[in-house]
């Protein structure tokens, strides 16, 4: 028997479909790897390219933003600021504990958990942008906001977002979370010109950040998203809605209880009127800024967060503003004018020259031109006491008699100058005392001829008058323009027994580290003898009791002098006590008449009296020098 062959077993054939699928899988994986590598390469290249033009992140480590120089009155109350950006730096530990937490809850609740970027916030913002069809949300973290504020422009673009992401990662690696949050709370703009939480606290509530309550903290924390839309001063309802949102977020995050949130929301808010402060103190604070800039330069003022204690007395300043406004309005009503004249007032400490009050006009916001300092006007008869003081220094007696008769002076050009008294009358033999009490022009001109122009001009310069004085006889009538501050400073010589202290507006400066630097003032200098000062004071006291300044009566032991220029264009009164010397001017900027009869006695003296009555305490009685009668002498 032949054996049967066993059939050969062929291997099973694989299904064709499975083989094709496997090949496709390999291809897809390969393509994905290629795409990934290409994407990685493009991303790396783009990141490298963008990094070439990025700012140096190390500059943030030396964070020195523009800051605010704070001005205080002599009692330590804030009266103004000097800044390009209103910012006052705080360290993290100087902030109340709830303040950083409120901003984190409102702006970036996962701040302490994520890195430089928050992927979930970015995804959520991306979806919302797709739904709205526009780029309305950015999903920015606090780190990104700091990066944007310090190193990038505010222009919205995806390229800027890419740069922002790179810089944010670098910043997150370089600084701690607390340091970044501190920069944020000092840098963020919160509306009304306030940058950072300290400036915002003072702007909105008139207090320091550490004094804020929960309701106020929540309101500030709601501002970064849109400081204009949520401004409590302009859109109170929107601000309150945003405040409620912040309080609810804080409650959800476990920072406060729901009961605390409800209590804070129903707590009344009291806002600080910083515009009123600027209106009241604007002329003075601008004058202080100019003095600081002259000595230190603008760079130090804008970068060193100085605290400047000034000489201003806020109570007297408020009284000065009211007195000037009332006086100017009274002129308008009396003369039935359409326009209210301008006015200015300066008050100095008679013994030190410290500026206690300064008003440079009736409306600082409408016209910041300081008429107490910048305006040079003819002083009229308020200049006369300097002439009489120069004469008394030469030994001329206050009781010297001079003929008050018509006078004609031949000018070098061949013309004649025929001055006259304000009343256009002549009074015959007149003592120097009465000539000054009743402001007699003819006698004063003759006295200037007798004394000499140069001694008067030298005395005026020693008394602080820096404006050029023309060496001509019309100087006797106050023809050379001077500022109100100059003239008022000169009168302190009479109030201070012949000593002159240059007007000063600053007493000390404190830097951010607390180091105190006294303001280097000029030392006092003697201008006239004490006897001369007492003689002038005795006569100017009579100006108020029986002369042209009778409308200033009412302040014990006061002395002063009126001044009126041609056509009643300028009305002056400068008066003093041993404690306070104050000068008042009223007039129009364009040199028009105030109106018939608006003399220094009628117009300016009541303003001085109003101011002095309002806030100045009566000083001790000065020794008024008695002068015996003397012989009659004609010139």
UniProtKB/TrEMBL annotation:
<protein>
    <recommendedName>
        <fullName>peptidoglycan glycosyltransferase</fullName>
        <ecNumber>2.4.99.28</ecNumber>
    </recommendedName>
</protein>
<keyword id="KW-0472">Membrane</keyword>
<dbReference type="InterPro" id="IPR036950">
    <property type="entry name" value="PBP_transglycosylase"/>
</dbReference>
<keyword id="KW-0961">Cell wall biogenesis/degradation</keyword>
<dbReference type="InterPro" id="IPR012338">
    <property type="entry name" value="Beta-lactam/transpept-like"/>
</dbReference>
<dbReference type="Pfam" id="PF00912">
    <property type="entry name" value="Transgly"/>
</dbReference>
<dbReference type="InterPro" id="IPR001460">
    <property type="entry name" value="PCN-bd_Tpept"/>
</dbReference>
<dbReference type="Pfam" id="PF00905">
    <property type="entry name" value="Transpeptidase"/>
</dbReference>
<dbReference type="GO" id="GO:0006508">
    <property type="term" value="P:proteolysis"/>
</dbReference>
<keyword id="KW-0812">Transmembrane</keyword>
<dbReference type="GO" id="GO:0004180">
    <property type="term" value="F:carboxypeptidase activity"/>
</dbReference>
<keyword id="KW-1133">Transmembrane helix</keyword>
<feature type="domain" description="Penicillin-binding protein transpeptidase">
    <location>
        <begin position="343"/>
        <end position="606"/>
    </location>
</feature>
<keyword id="KW-0573">Peptidoglycan synthesis</keyword>
<dbReference type="InterPro" id="IPR050396">
    <property type="entry name" value="Glycosyltr_51/Transpeptidase"/>
</dbReference>
<dbReference type="GO" id="GO:0008658">
    <property type="term" value="F:penicillin binding"/>
</dbReference>
<dbReference type="InterPro" id="IPR023346">
    <property type="entry name" value="Lysozyme-like_dom_sf"/>
</dbReference>
<feature type="transmembrane region" description="Helical">
    <location>
        <begin position="27"/>
        <end position="50"/>
    </location>
</feature>
<dbReference type="GO" id="GO:0008360">
    <property type="term" value="P:regulation of cell shape"/>
</dbReference>
<keyword id="KW-0378">Hydrolase</keyword>
<keyword id="KW-0645">Protease</keyword>
<dbReference type="GO" id="GO:0016020">
    <property type="term" value="C:membrane"/>
</dbReference>
<dbReference type="InterPro" id="IPR001264">
    <property type="entry name" value="Glyco_trans_51"/>
</dbReference>
<keyword id="KW-0808">Transferase</keyword>
<dbReference type="GO" id="GO:0030288">
    <property type="term" value="C:outer membrane-bounded periplasmic space"/>
</dbReference>
<dbReference type="GO" id="GO:0008955">
    <property type="term" value="F:peptidoglycan glycosyltransferase activity"/>
</dbReference>
<dbReference type="GO" id="GO:0009252">
    <property type="term" value="P:peptidoglycan biosynthetic process"/>
</dbReference>
<keyword id="KW-0328">Glycosyltransferase</keyword>
<feature type="domain" description="Glycosyl transferase family 51">
    <location>
        <begin position="77"/>
        <end position="250"/>
    </location>
</feature>
<keyword id="KW-0133">Cell shape</keyword>
<keyword id="KW-0121">Carboxypeptidase</keyword>
<keyword id="KW-0511">Multifunctional enzyme</keyword>
<dbReference type="GO" id="GO:0071555">
    <property type="term" value="P:cell wall organization"/>
</dbReference>
């Amino acid at each position: 028997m032949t054996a049967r062959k066993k059939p050969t077993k062929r291997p099973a054939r694989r299904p064709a479909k499975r083989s094709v699928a496997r090949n496709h899988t390999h291809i897809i994986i390969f393509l994905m790897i290629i795409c990934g590598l290409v994407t990685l390469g493009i991303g790396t290249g783009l990141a490298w390219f963008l990094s070439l033009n990025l700012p140096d992140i190390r500059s943030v480590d030396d964070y020195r933003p523009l800051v605010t120089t704070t001005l205080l009155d002599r009692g330590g109350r804030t009266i103004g600021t000097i800044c390009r950006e209103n910012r006052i730096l705080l360290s993290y530990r100087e902030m109340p504990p709830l303040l950083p937490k409120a901003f984190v809850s409102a702006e970036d609740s996962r701040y302490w958990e994520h890195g430089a970027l928050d992927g979930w916030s970015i995804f959520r913002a991306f979806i919302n942008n797709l739904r709205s069809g526009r780029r309305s949300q950015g999903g920015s973290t606090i780190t990104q906001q700091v990066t944007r504020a310090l190193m990038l422009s505010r222009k919205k673009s995806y390229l800027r977002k890419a740069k922002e992401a790179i810089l944010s990662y670098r910043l997150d690696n370089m600084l701690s979370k607390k340091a970044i949050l501190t920069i944020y709370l000092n840098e963020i703009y919160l509306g009304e010109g306030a940058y950072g939480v300290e400036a915002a606290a003072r702007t909105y509530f008139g207090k320091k950040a550490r004094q804020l309550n929960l309701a106020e903290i929540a309101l500030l924390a709601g501002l970064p998203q849109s400081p204009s839309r949520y401004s409590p001063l302009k859109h109170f309802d929107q601000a309150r809605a945003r405040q409620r949102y912040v309080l609810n977020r804080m409650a959800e995050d476990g920072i406060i209880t729901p009961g605390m949130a409800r209590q804070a929301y129903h707590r009344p808010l009291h806002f600080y009127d910083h515009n009123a402060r600027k209106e009241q103190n604007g002329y003075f604070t601008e004058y202080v800024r100019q003095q600081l800039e002259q000595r230190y330069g603008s760079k130090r003022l804008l970068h060193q967060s100085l605290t400047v204690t000034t000489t201003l007395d806020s109570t007297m300043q408020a009284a000065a503003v009211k007195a000037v406004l009332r006086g100017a309005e009274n002129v308008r009503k009396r003369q039935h004018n359409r326009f209210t004249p301008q006015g200015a007032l300066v008050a100095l400490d008679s013994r030190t020259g410290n500026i206690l009050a300064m008003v440079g006009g009736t409306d600082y916001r409408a016209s910041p031109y300081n008429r107490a300092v910048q305006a040079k006007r003819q002083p009229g008869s308020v200049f006369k006491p300097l002439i009489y003081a120069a004469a008394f220094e030469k030994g001329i007696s206050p009781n010297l008699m001079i003929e008050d008769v018509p006078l004609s002076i031949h000018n070098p050009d061949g013309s004649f100058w025929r001055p006259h008294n304000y009343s256009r009358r002549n009074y015959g033999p007149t003592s120097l005392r009465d000539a000054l009490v009743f402001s007699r022009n003819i006698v004063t001109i003759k006295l200037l001829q007798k004394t000499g122009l140069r001694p008067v001009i030298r005395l005026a310069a020693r008394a602080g008058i820096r404006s050029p004085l023309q060496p001509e006889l019309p100087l006797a009538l106050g023809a050379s323009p001077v500022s109100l501050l100059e003239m008022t400073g000169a009168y302190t010589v009479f109030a201070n027994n012949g000593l002159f202290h240059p007007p000063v507006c600053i007493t000390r400066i404190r830097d951010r580290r607390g180091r105190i630097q006294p303001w280097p003032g000029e030392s006092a200098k003697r201008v006239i003898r004490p006897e001369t000062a007492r003689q002038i004071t005795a006569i100017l006291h009579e100006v108020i009791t029986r002369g042209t300044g009778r409308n200033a009566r009412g302040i014990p032991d006061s002395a002063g002098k009126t001044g009126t220029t041609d056509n009643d264009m300028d009305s002056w009164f400068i008066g003093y006590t041993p404690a306070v010397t104050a000068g008042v001017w009223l007039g129009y900027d364009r040199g028009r008449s105030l109106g018939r009869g608006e003399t220094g006695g009628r117009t300016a003296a009541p303003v001085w009296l109003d101011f002095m009555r309002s806030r100045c305490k009566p000083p001790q009685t000065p020794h008024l020098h008695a002068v015996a009668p003397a012989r009659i002498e004609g010139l």
